[in-house]
Design goal:
alpha/beta, Quinone Oxidoreductase, Chain A, domain 1, Rossmann fold, 26% helix, 27% strand
Length: 312
């Protein structure tokens, strides 16, 4: 099968398309024919290993000290169950599925074997039927992060919510979820993305290219930093100061991403009920994975960037 190998840390050019042996599912695994994967910010960190000291030490111990321990990286997938092990109960061949592979990685390939039970090495669920495989990759990654961290806010109708990084994969979905919960939503993004986040339901937008302050009379009940602590700005610090008394501030890198098939089922329900719509910026073929990494690394994508694995 075709796969993209990452056999050392470095720039996007370290990624190489190659022929490798197709995996065979164990008794407790399914084999997924991957239709689409994605280039996420997590993939960028894994490939480049660009993390500050001392964070990089435990990161390298988990992923690989001198090079990635798993040469096929990638965390997100959407595709079709091709075959199953004899102990599989949840899925059958032909099922359309989506999810995350966790520390299994391996989604930059035509096939992937995963356990059907939730572990740190993956979570899998039936794919939403009303979106493409490419859109499903954005729903899985951005949706999982958005739901996990919005739950920390126990958002109530009428509360003021601010999403910093509202035009990214997690941010675009978080805006829609918060609005569905009845919040008054403010999104922080660039000039080019203001209309996008308003079309997703944001009541107000703050342009980080033009503003460094938030209105003096506004205090937010919940703030989600959807870009992470590595990206700082004067505006972000001022947003923190605008937190209401007993308000909650969370960042998407406050803890590990929790992999849950029940959460994927929840995302599926939201998508099929048209409560959230995944946003896809660009779609690249697997053969252009290097260019896709270059694009995502610039930090200006809208929603998700998908990789088409099965060409039609």
């Amino acid at each position: 099968m075709k796969a993209v190998l990452c056999e050392k840390y470095g720039q996007p050019e370290v990624l190489k398309l190659a022929e490798v042996e197709k995996p065979i599912p164990k008794d407790n695994e399914v084999c997924i024919k991957i239709h689409a994967t994605a280039v996420t910010n997590s993939d960028i960190f894994i490939r480049g290993s660009k993390l500050p000291f001392p964070i990089i030490i435990p990161f390298r111990l988990m992923i690989g000290v001198l090079k990635p321990r798993k040469s096929i990286i990638g965390l997100v997938f959407s595709g079709e169950i091709e075959s199953i092990g004899k102990n599989i109960k949840r899925f059958k061949p032909g099922d359309m599925v989506y999810g995350l592979s966790g520390f299994t990685f391996g989604t930059y390939a035509e096939y992937l074997c995963l356990k059907e039970t939730d572990t740190k090495t993956g979570a899998i669920s039936l794919k939403p039927g009303n979106i493409s495989h490419e859109e499903a990759t954005a729903a899985a990654y951005g949706g999982m992060l958005a739901f996990q961290y919005l739950e920390k806010g126990t958002i109530q109708s009428g509360q003021k919510v601010l999403i910093y990084g509202a035009s990214g994969n997690t941010g675009t979905i978080a805006v829609q979820i918060a609005k569905h919960l009845g919040a008054e939503v403010t999104g922080v993004c660039s000039t080019a993305n203001i209309e996008l986040i308003k079309s997703l339901g944001a009541d107000y937008a703050i342009d980080y290219t033009k503003q460094v302050n938030v209105p003096d009379d506004v205090h937010y009940d919940f703030i989600l930093d959807a870009v992470g602590k590595a990206k700082t700005s004067k505006l972000k610090e001022n947003c923190k100061k605008a937190l209401a008394h007993n308000g909650i501030y969370v960042s998407i890198d406050n803890g590990d991403l929790r992999l849950s098939s029940k959460q994927l089922d929840n995302i599926k329900d939201y998508v099929e009920a048209n409560r959230i719509k995944p946003v896809i910026d660009k779609i690249y073929p697997l053969s252009e994975i290097v260019e896709a990494h270059r694009y995502v690394e610039k930090g200006h994508k809208k929603g998700g960037v998908a990789i088409k694995v099965v060409l039609t």
